[in-house]
Amino acid sequence: MSGRDSSERVRFLRQAIADIEQSGQGACSARVRHVPMGSPEQAGFSFDRALGGLATGALYEVAPSRMSDLAAAGGFALGLAARFAASAPGAILWVSDEFSAHENGSPYAPGLARHGLDPARVVFVRTAGGQDLLWALEEAARCKGNAAVVADLWGAARLFDLVAARRITQAARASGAPTILIHPPASFRGAMAQNGARMRFEVTSRPSVLPSQAPRPVPGAAHWGVRFAKPGVEAGRLRGLDTELVRTIIWEHENGFFRDALSLALPAASGARTAAQANSA
Amino acid sequence: MDGTARRLGLAPGLSLSDARAVAPDLDAVEHDSAAFERRLAGVADWCRRFTPLAALDAPDGAMLDITGVTHLFGGEAALAREIEQRLARQGVTGVCAIASTPEAAFAFARFCTTRLAPPSEEKSLLRLVSRLPVAALRLDAGTVAALGRAGLKQIGDIHMRPRAPIAARFGARIFDTLDAMLGLSRSPISPRFESPAYIVERRFAEGVGAREQIETTIGALAQDLCGMLERHGEGARRLCASLFRVDGAVRHIHAGTSRPTRDPRALARLFRERLEAAGKTRDEDPLDIGYGFDVIRLAATEVENLDPSQAVLTQRRTATAAQSDLDFSNGERAEHLADLVDRLGARLGTRRVLRFVEQDTHLPEHAVMAVPAAEIRTRATKGAFAFEAGDAPDRPIRLFERPEPVEAIASVPDGPPLRFRWRRLTHEVAAIEGPERIAPEWWRHEASALTRDYFRVEDVDGHRFWLFREGLYGTETARPRWFVHGLFA
């Protein structure tokens, strides 16, 4: 048997196992809902077309493409959490460890409010180390009282192996709580590429202003370049996703929706504002 | 002073040279009062296995209120015997006396060979007390000596004389103590710990060593405790499991809940987390099982009303109320969440499970306070963290606890930065908004705090930072320093 055949075969078997697990869990799992990422009024956000909305009770992974994009990855993950939180009651449980909170900053409630997330719904768990973080994460994923679970997998990334991923996937599937992990950069290599996460996003910061805008532009809403970094593990339509394409999207923090940066007819908000300022000056 | 010493002819108060003359091979060890106090506190703690009301009786005793518990140990004499025997097995030489009043018990334990004092109604008590030395009245050495010089050596000498002259000369406290000893007036003992409202316990003939066994026992105790709570319509908010080790050490394990609970499984789970956490984290001593535990007790130290009907009512209410609130007392989801918060808090410590509360200050790092989620009982106020909507958020999603210094280059000392270097990377500024000037709160902080000018900065790659310059150029400082305080999405 050639190498290509065997890897093909392994993939087929994995798929079969995933299907069996899905059907076995179906009876006891909470009803899976699909939450659109874009605004329902103006249908046609490219992610919704590609993914058919975000399923609850699944594991999502977000990683920055470079170290300096970690804040962008966090912002994108919080955007996902905000979408889930808008569609269901319950808390947004954010798990982080001491080291990560110190190194990458800890959640800042006024900033969360402006990002479109109600700080009163956020419960922040700050563990002493990675082992505790994974335990807390699994407990949180198992809890039916959460609208979304977000975790900074910073210090625990080395401990997060296939077994841990599988436990958390099962917990999330049973409770229906969507679980979003923020990875350190370049952690999707090797065996972890085949864990049970439903979708994996790689996020890059994108400028919110055009270089030509003069003389002193103002930073606009968050822009990100997002790549689907998960090849054909999911069944059906997700199989055909282009994993190389980087799509530029915008987080509408006021309404709590994602939208495409390009397809919009409106002029860029920041540019308009700079022009207005220039006129008044 | 143990038997060996007494046989050698040693007595308390003997000077070291005299003692050496009597017993030449005597080892002199300096009295370590701190260690002694710790040990005594340990003994007083251990005494709580007999009664919840055990008090430390400084400097060298413990006082137990055994009202209503003696029948559990086969009567007063048997109880006294058991206490002495168990103490001896721990290597503590102790004398136990039982009396109707704490003062009498104090006196009989130290100055009398009769261990069981007659009740205060009987005449024989007065007869026995009269023969005790005056030191039994808890007097300081000076007063005892002064009374001795006046020829008053025994309590009887004082009791039969007119009170006024003695009180005038030696203080009225003598008679207060005497009356209390004879049961004419009452004095309370102050227990080392509040007596909890609900206690259940299991006793074992032999030490229980396996952790599973301890967990099972606590689970069974939780069943009993919840039954008691249910009868009284109450739920536990704080619980304490006490493990009495065979050799006298006592370990208390505390657990709290974020809402009144009387679900035995939830309580048992809380303690399972605590037992598992014991020894894992730095701030916990390991659970030292040693020879095993022979008494395991579970107490609800803080309880609150918990109506059985409440659950039904609130479920109906949440169906109509806005469901987006995070409220720990209503609804099924909230129940799950409160349960999770308790479990996380039990294992990780409650100060690690936090919620955010807005503070009335405009200093960014103080604008929000993280409070243990278990302590917030009321509904979070709506409209907290209000802000003016803008084109882009003006506060970062992540804030550094300690602003990180950066090297920034600005065109003029009080102008916005053109480029800056942070964590060894140089960022070219592409877009900027600011300054937002935030003055120090001089009424709260020391006068040395400097004004900060905050800038929202985006570099050419689209990374967004929250920078500030500390100090007004020219007036507050000649060399303003730059910091990055937070990161935007």
Largest interface pair: A-B, 70 and 69 residues
For this structure, the quaternary state is: heterodimer
Spatial strand order of the main sheet of chain A: 6-4-7-8-3-9-10-11-12
Domain module count of chain B: 4
N- to C-terminal separation of chain B?
A: 73 Å
Number of strands of chain A: 12
Query: How many extended strands of chain B?
Result: 14
Please tell me the total number of domains of chain A. 1
How would you briefly describe this protein structure?
The complex is a heterodimer of chains A (281) and B (489). Chain A has 281 residues and is of the alpha/beta class.
Walk me through what this model shows.
The complex is a heterodimer of chains A (281) and B (489). With 281 residues, chain A is of the alpha/beta class. Chain A has a single domain (37-280), classed as P-loop containing nucleotide triphosphate hydrolases (Rossmann fold). In chain A, 36% of the residues lie in helices and 22% in strands. Chain A has 8 helices and 12 strands. Chain A has helices spanning 3-26, 46-51, 70-87, 98-104, 109-114, 130-142, 162-175, 269-280, and strands at 34-35, 54-55, 59-64, 91-97, 106-107, 122-127, 146-152, 179-182, 199-206, 223-228, 246-252, 257-260. In chain A, the strands form 2 sheets. Chain A has a 9-stranded mixed beta sheet, sandwiched between helices. Chain A has a two-stranded antiparallel ribbon with strand order 1-2. In chain A, strand 11 and strand 12 form a beta hairpin. In chain A, helix 6 (130-142) packs parallel to helix 7 (162-175). The longest helix of chain A is centred in the N-terminal third of the chain and has 24 residues, at 3-26. Chain B is an alpha+beta fold and 489 residues long. Chain B folds into 4 domains: 1-29, no CATH class; 30-181, no CATH class; 198-310, DNA polymerase, Y-family, little finger domain (Dna Ligase, domain 1, 2-Layer Sandwich); 398-487, no CATH class. Chain B is built from 14 helices and 14 strands. Chain B has a 6-stranded antiparallel beta barrel with strand order 9-10-11-12-13-14. In chain B, a hairpin with a 3-residue loop joins strand 1 and strand 2 (61-64). In chain B, helix 5 (102-111) packs across helix 10 (173-181) and helix 11 runs antiparallel to helix 12 (264-277). The longest helix of chain B has 22 residues, at 211-232. Mean pLDDT of chain B is 80; it is low at 309-329.
